[in-house]
């Protein structure tokens, strides 16, 4: 792990838990001792492999999770775009998305810390199901908070969580989606903090969560780095990942951040040799429009990195969709997993410094991306991942000769939404969905 | 001039045992809030906390969450809040309780948006000073920020010092050791002692955690006020008797506002509730001095 620690030091400013101007610990006082305890456990077990924690984590990710996931050459996409396109198949991880990397890591850590209970928030239900699976696997009681709106539109995931023995608590406040679920999980944690661990689902929240979740997810990029060099003999020109809170994004990018012609991002290990440069693209949900309705408090998108402004939400300074007064906007995306008004503080920092290029793909192009991958490659991607594929279609010319796209999850959970949304639109890549009407 | 560092500290020391009341500004309207604050002032509040509503109130229980939602639905803005405070003339000093993002964004109305044509120009970083300047100008005496722990508070503390405002910190049941020492050595106004883990909200009993906390904090010679769950005169008596200098009551008052058919009905009920709480607090203070078993709490300078 020593090289990862060195990389961390490069991308962080002096104060612990910050990435440039972003990050920090903006939480109620009652949680501060728990964050210190977690920081200590993270350093000992994750960074220093105390008691063989990381060995056990990797072994369980292999045997229970199915790691490593393949890096697959996408033959028909490569032909279509006239360049080498590779897909990182996180959709093949147990549970159907990258979420297990983090959930299993944190539940195992909670066990090492002697905690007795697991709580988590979930939006689309992917993090909730991953946490419920990990908790069942490691024999920990588990409660999941989920907005009522999401409970209603993600039924299959609610059942999966309950099958694995988790309690699902619907949250009725506000728009009853991810933001409210996080609020309510934080309230539970502030009440039960002494024996409960909060498994936060993305690289968001107070320090040490953004860094720790990234480290659990960094296996994605570490594997890509080895696999692409084996298959293509060199590093890719570009790596593309979708971004909501940003856990698959940071997990995919982390290993490549130092691969930069600009020496400020280099890890110092390569001396005077010129480095191969890898461009990093974080693709957000453009929703139906990038405009903001200040009056109504609505942002019909979740393009926080592209359009957000600096502020504090859920424990961290980061980029946010907010009104000029500082009220948080209701965000939107056809993909529930990207539908969030904040984003991980490290991504905000990497965008601010120019290392990561933010981009956005609207609902229509994401749906086209979904249909295209399904038909051309026989892979049904999550609507979240479909944003990265939509970007590939639109902007492949700028991505160089060798491109890696992270397929962060599979799309089985999205079929109903996709049918419904496809019927409303005239999408070039869609099959005829009317045959499903009876 | 008082012998104390601030009018907040003076209010707690001189009016011992102190009653601190909280309501959410703009619930159900800023005009009603003005009447309510005046009623709480008449009823014997020694300090009044006014909540400036934020859309993500993670430290609040359901009662105050609902009040914040009503206030936001009524269109309450920071500027409207400050105009209300401009208009208020109370005997009790006023504090604002809000979340950190509201303080960061105030006065930053020129932040570029994607919809602006010049979105490419560098964004100005959020700054706490415009909020603090406006708070001081409106006559507020202090600020409480439930999502700002001491470790992140330096910019706001500096701005408050410049303008003579207290920045009140919360002491949780989990605050211990070195962190407790550090926070207690920087107490500004008073130490807000959180009676129990969890969120705000009226409860039926005073928790044993309250007694434990007050015992743990007894060695620190700073004014201590206890909040989270306090709703009745008897609670106030018990908490003062256990060694607190004041009690903080919020959700029980918000409940009165929420359950009134007509906003004006709440005015008398709020005044009466404040009197009940203040009487309870006095009862607690009296039982300290008359009970020969207990050593009377020395008058603290």
From TrEMBL, chain A:
Its cofactor is pyridoxal 5'-phosphate. It catalyses: (1S,2R)-1-C-(indol-3-yl)glycerol 3-phosphate + L-serine = D-glyceraldehyde 3-phosphate + L-tryptophan + H2O. The modification N6-(pyridoxal phosphate)lysine is found at residue 99. Pathway: Amino-acid biosynthesis; L-tryptophan biosynthesis; L-tryptophan from chorismate: step 5/5. Keywords: Amino-acid biosynthesis, Aromatic amino acid biosynthesis, Lyase, Pyridoxal phosphate, Tryptophan biosynthesis. Residues 1-22 are annotated as: Disordered. PANTHER family: TRYPTOPHAN SYNTHASE (PTHR48077:SF3), TRYPTOPHAN SYNTHASE-RELATED (PTHR48077). Tetramer of two alpha and two beta chains. The beta subunit is responsible for the synthesis of L-tryptophan from indole and L-serine. This is Tryptophan synthase beta chain. It comes from Natrinema versiforme JCM 10478.
UniProtKB/TrEMBL annotation, chain B:
Keywords: Amino-acid biosynthesis, Aromatic amino acid biosynthesis, Lyase, Tryptophan biosynthesis. One of its GO terms (cellular component) is cytosol. Pathway: Amino-acid biosynthesis; L-tryptophan biosynthesis; L-tryptophan from chorismate: step 5/5. It is an enzyme of class 4 (lyase). It comes from the Archaea. The keyword Amino-acid biosynthesis applies. Residues 291-301 have a biased composition (Acidic residues). It catalyses: (1S,2R)-1-C-(indol-3-yl)glycerol 3-phosphate + L-serine = D-glyceraldehyde 3-phosphate + L-tryptophan + H2O. The keyword Lyase applies. Residues 276-285 have a biased composition (Basic and acidic residues). SUPFAM superfamilies: Ribulose-phoshate binding barrel. The active site is at 49 (proton acceptor), 60 (proton acceptor). Its EC number is 4.2.1.20. Residues 276-301 are annotated as: Disordered. Tetramer of two alpha and two beta chains. Belongs to the TrpA family. The alpha subunit is responsible for the aldol cleavage of indoleglycerol phosphate to indole and glyceraldehyde 3-phosphate. This is Tryptophan synthase alpha chain. It comes from Natrinema versiforme JCM 10478.
């Amino acid at each position: 792990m020593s090289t990862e620690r060195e990389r961390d030091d490069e991308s962080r400013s002096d104060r612990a838990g910050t990435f440039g101007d972003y990050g920090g610990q903006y939480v109620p006082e009652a949680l501060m001792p728990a964050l210190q305890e977690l920081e200590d456990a993270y350093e000992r077990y994750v960074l220093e492999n105390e008691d063989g924690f990381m060995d056990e984590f990797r072994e369980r990710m292999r045997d229970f999770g199915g790691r490593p996931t393949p890096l697959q050459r996408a033959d028909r996409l490569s032909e279509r775009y006239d360049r080498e396109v590779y897909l990182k198949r996180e959709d093949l991880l147990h549970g159907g998305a990258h979420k297990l990397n983090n959930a299993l890591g944190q539940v195992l850590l909670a066990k090492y810390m002697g905690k007795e209970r697991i709580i988590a928030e979930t939006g689309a239900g992917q993090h909730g199901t991953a946490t419920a699976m990990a908790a069942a696997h490691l024999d920990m009681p588990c409660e999941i908070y989920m907005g009522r709106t999401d409970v209603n539109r993600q039924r299959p995931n609610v059942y999966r969580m309950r099958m694995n023995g988790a309690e699902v608590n619907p949250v009725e406040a506000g728009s009853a989606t991810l933001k409210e679920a996080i609020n309510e999980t934080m309230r539970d944690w502030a009440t039960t903090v002494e024996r409960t661990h909060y498994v936060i689902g993305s690289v968001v929240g107070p320090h040490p969560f953004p860094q720790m979740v990234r480290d659990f997810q960094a296996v994605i990029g570490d594997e890509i780095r080895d696999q692409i060099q084996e298959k293509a003999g060199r590093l890719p020109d570009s790596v593309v990942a979708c971004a909501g809170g940003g856990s698959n994004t940071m997990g995919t990018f982390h290993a490549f951040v130092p691969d930069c012609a600009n020496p400020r991002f280099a890890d110092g290990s390569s001396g005077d040799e010129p480095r191969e440069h890898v461009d990093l693209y974080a693709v957000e949900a453009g929703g139906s429009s990038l405009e903001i309705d200040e009056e109504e408090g609505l942002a019909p998108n979740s393009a926080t990195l592209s359009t957000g402004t600096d502020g504090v939400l859920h424990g961290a300074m980061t980029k946010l969709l907010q009104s000029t007064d500082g009220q948080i906007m209701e965000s939107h995306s056809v993909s529930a997993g990207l539908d969030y008004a904040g984003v991980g503080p490290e991504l905000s920092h990497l965008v601010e410094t120019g290392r990561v290029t933010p981009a956005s793909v609207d609902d229509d192009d994401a749906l086209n991306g979904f249909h295209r991958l399904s038909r051309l490659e026989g892979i049904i991607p999550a609507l979240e991942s479909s944003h990265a594929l939509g970007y590939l279609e639109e902007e492949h010319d700028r991505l160089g000769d060798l491109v890696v796209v992270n397929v962060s999850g599979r799309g089985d959970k999205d079929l109903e939404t996709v049918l419904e949304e496809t019927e409303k639109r005239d999408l070039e890549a869609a099959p005829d969905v009317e045959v499903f009407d009876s | 001039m008082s012998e104390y560092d601030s009018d907040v500290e003076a209010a707690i020391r001189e009016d011992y045992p102190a009653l601190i009341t909280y309501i959410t500004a703009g619930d159900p309207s800023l005009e009603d809030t003005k009447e309510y604050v005046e009623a709480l002032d008449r009823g014997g509040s020694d300090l009044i906390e006014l909540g400036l509503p934020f859309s993500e109130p993670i430290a609040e229980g359901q009662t105050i969450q609902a009040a914040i939602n009503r206030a936001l639905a009524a269109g309450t803005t920071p500027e409207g809040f400050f105009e209300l405070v401009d208009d208020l003339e109370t005997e009790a000093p006023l504090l604002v309780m809000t979340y950190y993002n509201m303080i960061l964004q105030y006065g930053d109305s020129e932040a570029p948006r994607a919809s602006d044509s010049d979105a490419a120009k560098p964004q100005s970083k959020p700054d706490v000073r415009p909020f603090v300047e406006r708070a001081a100008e409106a006559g507020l005496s202090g600020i409480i920020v439930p999502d700002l722990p001491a470790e992140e508070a330096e910019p706001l503390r500096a701005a408050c010092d410049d303008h003579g405002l207290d920045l009140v910190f919360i002491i949780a049941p989990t605050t211990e050791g070195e962190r407790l020492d550090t926070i207690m050595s920087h107490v500004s106004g008073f130490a807000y002692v959180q009676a129990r883990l969890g969120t705000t909200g009226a409860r039926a009993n005073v928790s044993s955690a309250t007694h434990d906390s007050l015992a743990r904090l007894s060695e620190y010679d700073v004014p201590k006020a206890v909040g989270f769950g306090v709703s009745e005169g008897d609670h106030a008596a018990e908490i003062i008797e256990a060694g607190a200098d004041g009690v903080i009551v919020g959700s029980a008052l918000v409940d009165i506002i929420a359950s009134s058919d007509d906003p004006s009905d709440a005015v008398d009920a709020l005044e009466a509730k404040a009197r009940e709480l203040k009487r309870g607090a006095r009862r607690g203070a009296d039982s300290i001095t008359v009970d020969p078993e207990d050593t009377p709490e020395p008058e603290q300078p």
